[in-house]
Design a protein that fits this description.
alpha/beta, Metallo-beta-lactamase, Chain A, globular
Length: 166
């Protein structure tokens, strides 16, 4: 298993997220059926009781990982302290994971946006992290939640920022 060093402490001692994503902050959103569907899916998949992991290999910013596709690591903290995007330059693809989404798992809203505030440990950091991916040229962006985006990274980032200003 590979992990950014900033997320290693949480792997060693799993538990609820903190900051903007602390369990208390999700309570006002519990009326949403889409959130309950996600919670149910995560529960069935074992996501509510992650195992402790102590032997993960760590990586850092800018590294090119020795895995298929050889992605370059781009730190995008906010969702978690060590959240990263991965640029697969040979494939003109950018996997942003939970730095952004095109399907909001809380509201069900679609289009490029930050993950919901209640899922980011620091929404402010998540918003700042968009600057790290904005200059990347990629034909396709891939997300942890939602459909791929093929209209340019810069345009996706602009739309996400515009939604945050509302």
């Amino acid at each position: 298993m590979l992990i950014h060093s900033a997320d290693e402490p949480k792997l060693r001692n799993p538990g609820p997220k903190s900051g903007d994503a602390s369990p208390l902050h999700i309570v006002p959103e519990l009326w949403r059926p889409s959130l309950w569907r996600m919670i149910w899916s995560m529960t069935l998949a074992g996501g509510m009781r992650p195992p402790k992991i102590s032997d993960a290999e760590r990586f850092g910013a800018g590294e090119v990982l020795d895995v298929p596709g050889h992605p370059r690591v781009i730190p995008t903290p906010g969702h978690t302290p060590g959240h990263c995007a991965f640029h697969f330059e040979q494939h003109s693809a950018l996997f942003v994971g939970d730095a952004m989404c095109t399907m909001n798992p809380v509201t069900g809203g679609t289009g490029p946006q930050l993950m919901p505030h209640v899922m980011n440990e620091s929404n402010e950091r998540a918003l700042r992290s968009l600057s790290e991916i904005e200059p990347i040229e990629a034909e396709v962006m891939l997300f942890g939640h939602g459909e791929p985006w093929r209209e340019g990274v810069r345009r996706a980032v602009e739309q996400a920022r515009a939604l945050e200003r509302r």
